[in-house]
């Protein structure tokens, strides 16, 4: 009986104990950024296929993605038609959480089921108002990866980018992305991106991350 009483008392104390404080948006971002603490830099090839159902509006994009700790991330497309230039920013935004606090007001907006597990939902509102009303980010707090980001435009359009990851070289790295594009007056489209040829902890010139250099590299043939 005494043992049972001790167990019961323990259960009562556990039930009465305050629950752990919920994570703040800033803590979530910190954990995402620090997912691979020993990864200083990387470079990888990105191959994007867009599908609209219209042959001349289904471009192929190829380029390179660069990362340099603490907060440098860039996607530079070296093969992209003029009408697809806007997609460069789409693929750069989701991979750059270290800069989100500078560009957005961040709030935690609950949880959501995603592929058999629960994800934390972050709401991002631009500090400098643009065409996007807000962005919604789903974070897997078990792996600290960004599973999905949805851009909600003022005109009612949305773009959703879903991500999957793989283990390589001892790191959790981005493997594939799937984009669902639903914008007014634009054919409903989807796209798939694959990342390959990773090189880890190599020297990367800071010039790669400047706006001027990005524009020049993005128009090279």
Please give a structural write-up.
The chain has a single domain, classed as Clam (outer membrane lipoprotein receptor (LolB), chain A). The protein is built from five helices and ten strands; from the N terminus they run H-H-E-E-E-H-H-E-E-E-E-E-E-E-H. It has helices at 2-16, 25-33, 87-93, 100-103, 211-218; strands spanning 41-51, 60-68, 72-79, 104-114, 117-126, 132-140, 145-153, 158-168, 171-182, 189-200. The chain has a ten-stranded antiparallel β-sheet. The radius of gyration is 21 Å and the shape is globular. The model is unreliable at 1-19 and 212-221 (pLDDT under 50).
CATH superfamily: Lipoprotein localisation LolA/LolB/LppX
Number of folding domains? 1
| Count of helical regions | 5
Mean pLDDT score: 83
Strand order of the largest sheet: 3-2-1-10-9-8-7-6-5-4
Q: Which class of secondary structure composition applies to the elements?
A: alpha+beta
| Global geometry | globular
Query: What is the annotated CATH architecture?
Result: Clam
Helix-strand sequence: HHEEEHHEEEEEEEH
Q: In percent terms, what proportion of residues is strand?
A: over 45%
Low-confidence stretches: 1-19, 212-221
Main CATH class: Mainly Beta
End-to-end Cα distance: 81 Å
Biggest beta-sheet profile: 10 strands, antiparallel
Gyration radius, in Å = 21 Å
| Count of DSSP strands | 10
State the CATH topology.
outer membrane lipoprotein receptor (LolB), chain A
Q: What is the helical fraction, as a range of percent?
A: 10-25%
């Amino acid at each position: 009986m005494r043992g049972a009483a001790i167990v019961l008392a323990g259960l009562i104390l556990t039930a009465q104990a305050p629950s752990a404080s919920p994570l703040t948006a800033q803590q979530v971002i910190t954990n995402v950024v620090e997912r691979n603490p020993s990864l200083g830099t990387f470079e990888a090839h990105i191959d994007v296929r867009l599908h609209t159902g219209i042959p001349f509006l289904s471009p192929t994009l190829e380029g390179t993605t660069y990362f340099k700790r603490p907060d440098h991330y860039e996607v530079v497309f070296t093969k992209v038609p003029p009408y697809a230039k806007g997609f460069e920013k789409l693929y750069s935004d989701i991979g750059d959480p270290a800069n989100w606090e500078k560009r957005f007001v961040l709030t935690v907006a609950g949880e959501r089921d995603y592929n058999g597990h629960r994800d934390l939902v972050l709401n991002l509102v631009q500090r400098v108002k643009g065409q996007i009303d807000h962005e919604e980010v789903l974070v897997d707090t078990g792996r600290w990866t960004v599973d999905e980001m949805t851009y909600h435009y003022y005109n009612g359009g949305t773009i959703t980018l879903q991500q999957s990851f793989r283990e390589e070289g001892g790191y959790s790295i981005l493997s594939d992305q799937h984009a669902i594009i639903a914008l007014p007056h634009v054919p409903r489209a989807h796209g798939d991106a694959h990342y390959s040829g990773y090189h880890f902890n190599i020297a990367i010139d800071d010039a790669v991350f400047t706006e001027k250099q990005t524009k020049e590299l993005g128009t090279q043939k």
